[in-house]
């Protein structure tokens, strides 16, 4: 049996993750669900370490990386996040997995399988990976140069679109760039994750698996009966975008 701890400050999200884990792998036993940075630090200072830790990044009382500075943790960590500003490439480079909210059951299964394959890695190596990860992610956004010009296809021509002209990117089999005057162009991107790594997270938001939109095209938003946010983009774009309940809080913070 594999003992695991979950750090997640949203009760419904934590419950959903427990259900997904139970369905994905019956050998994983959730011994504790922690809802804040403060309670997590207290727990790990007085309880044995689990075999595996599922850890949200942005908690109500701080960033969970602070836990790794306060307490020595040797167990593997699978990070979960609704925020796109945390250098996703760093997770991949350091062999520590991450799940983007809302958590996909197939991606969760792959993450657990990866954990099992590397379960017996030397703890010292894991510690070094964690240190490198924290250092990488702690770098201020100002040190990274974000992409400002994007090439798109218009018939047989290739156009250059400046970032301030962009309304949103959308995946509809191909990935399109849509401008603020509602022109739609094909890009050469293969995944939305590629775009996330290139654009400035202060001005672009990953709303769901299909859409990344820009902050200055948001006209308004409202909640539906399920806790999702319906975001309306300004004219002439006139598009509505669904933001999941799990990402609703992240969007509100981002817009502030």
Automatic annotation (TrEMBL):
Residues 3-116 form the Response regulatory domain. Residues 150-256 form the HTH LytTR-type domain. The modification 4-aspartylphosphate is found at residue 56. Pfam families: LytTR, Response_reg. Keywords: Phosphoprotein. It comes from the Bacteria. This is Response regulator transcription factor.
């Amino acid at each position: 049996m594999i003992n695991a701890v979950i750090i997640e400050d949203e009760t419904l999200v934590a419950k959903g993750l427990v259900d997904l884990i139970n369905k994905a792998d019956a050998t994983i036993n959730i011994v504790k669900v922690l809802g804040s940075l403060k309670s997590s630090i207290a727990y790990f200072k007085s309880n044995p370490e689990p075999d595996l830790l599922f850890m949200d990044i942005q908690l109500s009382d701080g960033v969970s990386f602070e836990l790794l500075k306060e307490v020595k943790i040797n167990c593997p960590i699978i990070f979960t996040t609704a925020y796109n500003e945390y250098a996703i490439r760093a997770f991949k480079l350091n062999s520590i997995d991450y799940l983007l909210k809302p958590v996909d059951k197939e991606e969760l299964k792959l993450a657990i399988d990866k954990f099992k394959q590397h379960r017996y890695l030397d703890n010292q190596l894991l510690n070094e990976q964690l240190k490198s990860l924290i250092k990488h992610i702690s770098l201020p956004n100002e040190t990274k140069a974000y992409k400002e010009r994007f090439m798109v296809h218009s018939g047989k021509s290739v156009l250059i679109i400046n970032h301030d002209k962009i309304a949103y990117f959308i995946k509809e089999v191909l990935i399109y760039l849509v401008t603020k005057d509602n022109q739609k162009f094909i890009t050469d991107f293969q995944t939305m994750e590629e775009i996330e790594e290139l654009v400035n997270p202060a001005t672009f938001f990953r709303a769901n698996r299909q859409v990344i939109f820009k902050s200055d095209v948001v006209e308004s938003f409202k909640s539906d009966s399920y806790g999702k946010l319906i975001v309306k983009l300004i004219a002439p774009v006139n598009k509505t975008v669904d933001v999941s309940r799990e990402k609703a809080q992240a969007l509100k913070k981002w817009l502030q």
